[in-house]
Amino acid sequence: xxxxxxxxxxxxxxxxxxxxxxxxxxxxxxxxxxxxxxxxxxxxxxxxxxxxxxxxxxxxxxxxxxxxxxxxxxxxxxxxxxxxxxxxxxxxxxxxxxxxxxxxxxxxxxxxxxxxxxxxxxxxxxxxxxxxxxxxxxxxxxxxxxxxxxxxxxxxxxxxxxxxxxxxxxxxxxxxxxxxxxxxxxxxxxxxxxxxxxxxxxxxxxxxxxxxxxxxxxxxxxxxxxxxxxxxxxxxxxxxxxxxxxxxxxxxxxxxxxxxxxxxxxxxxxxxxxxxxxxxxxxxxxxxxxxxxxxxxxxxxxxxxxxxxxxxxxxxxxxxxxxxxxxxxxxxxxxxxxxxxxxxxxxxxxxxxxx
Length: 355
Prior knowledge:
Helices cover 37% and strands 11% of the residues. The chain is built from 13 helices and six strands. A six-stranded parallel beta sheet has the order 3-2-1-4-5-6. α3 runs antiparallel to α10 and α3 packs across α13 (337-351). It starts with a helix and ends with a helix.
């Protein structure tokens, strides 16, 4: 019987999750969403979850509390180091501007498609020939496609109704061709919100609603507020993330606990990386009030629109690629050669975090 169950599990369609947002800083609930979602699909016995991806937003998002992308990527790397399936993707922060969520989904889905379909398994390898760290380890154990779904909270789902925040075409593309996995609070009513949206109702079959029965109200905003007041956030975020915040003095941290006392080896950070971050501090954008579901300024939205190439469009830097079905997304190309050099330098700084 167990052998039959294992064989059946191997035949299940494969999915992966991606969460987009600020992660400034990452909290345990950001990671809990992945675990809750995986438990749901495994208990339902409908899909095999092969990976989880965290994609922090670009620095030009320009909202209060948004630490630099170098610091946010470093904190995410520290937060997920105990996980064997959740990974950081720094592709979004290496672009030359803020990217729409739909474009982030398209890039990662397309990369996985190319990787699975390439004979060598290299796919669209990075310039140095290596594969990105976010790619699930077991991706090539099977040749069938992996469907990437957007993992989010109910607040992001409800933000679809905010006028001017989301383009209807983007909402339809995300829900129709990728799908949503929504972690909701006990007592909330996301079904009513879906009913009131024509687009969401049309693609309701692609929306998975999962109730979180163990509520956790600790948000990035709350953590930043406590830190700026000099109050303890111990046990509210990962110890390694907290240590990094203190050493980098992020979020206007005011704490009597900042000390250079001897610490365990796994809490000692790479000082070269810290120095590099200090040198990059002058490029930070001024901060405004922000939550994970906030949108950038209208000017930013206008600037971004001209650089994003939607499904079936022909970009000035690449040929036209046609969608052949759900999950077959168009690759988004936004970087020129000079931008790639800057991106590679940033990647090296992020990689210098000592785990």
